[in-house]
Amino acid sequence: MKESLLVDQHGRRLNYLRLSVTDRCNFRCYYCMPEEGINFAPRKELLSFEEMYQLSNVFVGLGIDKIRITGGEPFVRNGIIPFLYKLSELDGLKEIVVTSNGTLSAKHQSALKEMGIRKINISLDSLDAERFHRITRRDSFDTVYNGILGLLDDGFEIKLNCVIADNKNIEDIIPFIELTKNHPLSVRFLEEMPFNGSAISGYSGWDYQRIYQHISQHYTDINRIISDDNSTSVNYKIPGYAGGFGIIPSFSRTFCGTCNRVRLSATGELRTCLYGPPVANLRDTLRSGATGEGLQQILLNAVAKREKDGFAAEALSNGSIHTSMSVLGG
């Protein structure tokens, strides 16, 4: 196995790229953007799929072996499937994973299966249609839920991402765990983050400890699962249940010490930390005629300067912490 050359000043090797293919989304989830939306980037400012492929090739050449496709909603961008086919053939890339809101995934199910993409994370914040509508500002619950069941029946590995917040969906926590009783999927409960496109944090105080305490009041027997060293979630399973659940301390940031991720936005902004500012714009660099070797050096230098954790990176953000998650790519 090729060892990644992307090493930061704290000795962490990065082998995982989160690639946002668009800042556009067909939902308006309250924790991601205002109801009226955001000022989406003009088309010409988005990386083309060919540019994304070129940059992905550079990343893989430096040891990135996993790419997660994010957005916005990835499947709203025309041309995404041909791009994924081409990306899946990159020598050295071991895994492609997709994060989606689930409205369009069923449409592309056969193509994803054919190209070997079997892991899909779907954002689903409630199992109640009315609460789902209040959270997403869209009436698409049945489409998303039935699509999830269809993916499971077809052998896909599904993780559901549920952002937990007071007065929004606390009553959904236990039903989500009960969903894992008969379905072999994983539900991950996330602390709410401040990336909602407004100057207001919105954090409601439901941290990972409070979420676990709430769950432990309903289940006397909870087994902790040994997770990968780079996992952002602390994972658990109720004995006898087909699936499991995890809790991601995305606001508390307790997982920063083993972070192996780097992010590239749809407009080419490179971030070595979700909470930090962009450290380079690879779109501009690429369009100015930079070679593969030049791009590699930019990446090596940027990663080498990565901050210790999200709190140190946040101190450098100059207010960009409230940028919409749709722009950051998650």
TrEMBL record:
Positions of the Radical SAM core domain: 9-229
GO molecular function, one term: GTP 3',8'-cyclase activity
Enzyme superclass (EC): lyase
Keywords on record: 4Fe-4S, GTP-binding, Iron, Iron-sulfur, Lyase, Metal-binding, Molybdenum cofactor biosynthesis, Nucleotide-binding, S-adenosyl-L-methionine
E.C. designation(s): 4.1.99.22
Chemical reaction(s) catalysed: GTP + AH2 + S-adenosyl-L-methionine = (8S)-3',8-cyclo-7,8-dihydroguanosine 5'-triphosphate + 5'-deoxyadenosine + L-methionine + A + H(+)
Protein known as: GTP 3',8-cyclase
Native species: Mucilaginibacter jinjuensis
Lineage: Bacteria, Pseudomonadati, Bacteroidota, Sphingobacteriia, Sphingobacteriales
